[in-house]
Amino acid sequence: MMAALMALNALAIDIMLPGLPQIGASLGVADENQHQFIVTSYVLGFGIAQLAYGPLSDRFGRKFPLIAGLAIYFVGALFCAIVPSFTMLLLVRFFQGLGAAATRVISVAVVRDLYGGRKMAEIMSLIMMVFMVIPIIAPTIGQTIMFAGEWHLIFFFLAGAGLINIFWVSFRLPETQHPEDVRPLTPKAIASSFYTVLSNRIAFFYTLATMFIMGCIFGFVTSAPQVFLSVFELGTLFPLAFAGIGVTMAFSSLMNSRIVGKLGMRKLSHGALIGFTTTTGLWLLIDLAFGGLMPFWLFYVMFLVAWFQFGWIAPNFNSLAMEPLGHVAGAASSLLGFATTAGSALLGSVIGLSFNGTTTPMITGFFCFAVLALGLTVIAEKGKLMQPHNPEV
Question: pTM (2 decimals)?
Answer without folding.
Answer: 0.77
